[in-house]
Design brief:
Blueprint: E1 2-8, H1 10-27, E2 33-39, H2 43-52, E3 57-68, E4 74-80, E5 90-98, H3 102-112, E6 118-126, E7 139-143, E8 149-150, E9 166-170
Parallel strand pairs: 2-3, 2-5, 5-6, 6-7
Antiparallel strand pairs: 1-9, 3-4, 8-9
Helix pairs in contact: 1-2
The structure holds inosinic acid and magnesium ion.
Magnesium ion is lined by residues 41, 155.
Length: 173
């Protein structure tokens, strides 16, 4: 297994997170937010992001896993649901990476059933080439090419989440 050199360094990530947090602060001035983290991948991004947002907010967590089938549909299982009431609240769903789009699409539909006042999606990375379903991303950190990346919360087999930077991961053969 080989971890390549950083695709995004600690400094680049921190600058981008600050930029996203500033945009969110401006967009929600005078409002309250419920920030929803998709575990586990988004945990590091989420904790950095919320500490830079300057509007009152609550945090909550959801956890799900996806199994992409060959017919381009996905089976998504929800392991942990929201604890907060989000009816009539402004909600931002935070994810590490948009890949097929199936997870975000599923969670978006799931949260919309609770009738929030608004629902936006924030992702650190966007692997557009891999999209199977259309999903509107309101805040995007970095678009990336079709490579498997690890670090800053992103994993391979639940490993490498603790790297402070993001790197391309290749299985040695
Ligand atoms: P989806 O295909 O958009 O539903 O993404 C499902 C999940 O796959 C994401 O939440 C990530 O946890 C994971 N994932 C997708 N691409 C990568 C990657 O390059 N590295 C690590 N995890 C990834
Ligand atoms: Mg993951």
């Amino acid at each position: 297994m080989v971890i390549g050199k950083p695709l995004f360094t600690v400094e680049q990530i921190q600058r981008k997170v600050q930029e996203l947090a500033d945009r969110i602060t401006r967009d929600y001035e005078g409002k309250e937010l419920v920030m929803v983290c998709i575990l586990k991948g988004a945990f590091m991004f989420f904790s950095d992001l919320v500490r830079h947002i300057r509007v009152p907010l609550k945090v909550d967590f959801v956890s799900c896993s996806s199994y992409v089938r060959s017919d381009s549909s996905g089976d998504i299982k929800l392991h942990h649901d929201l604890r907060e009431q989000i009816r009539d609240k402004h909600v931002i769903l935070v994810e590490d990476i948009a890949d097929s789009g199936l997870t975000l699409n599923f969670l978006r539909e799931h949260l919309l059933q609770r009738e929030p006042a608004s629902l936006k999606i924030c992702v650190l990375l966007d692997k557009r080439e891999r999209r199977l379903v259309d999903v509107n991303l309101d805040y995007v950190g970095f678009p990336i090419p079709n490579e498997f990346v690890v670090g800053y919360g992103l994993d391979y087999s639940n490993m490498f989440r603790n790297l402070p930077y993001i790197a391309v991961f290749k299985k040695s053969t």
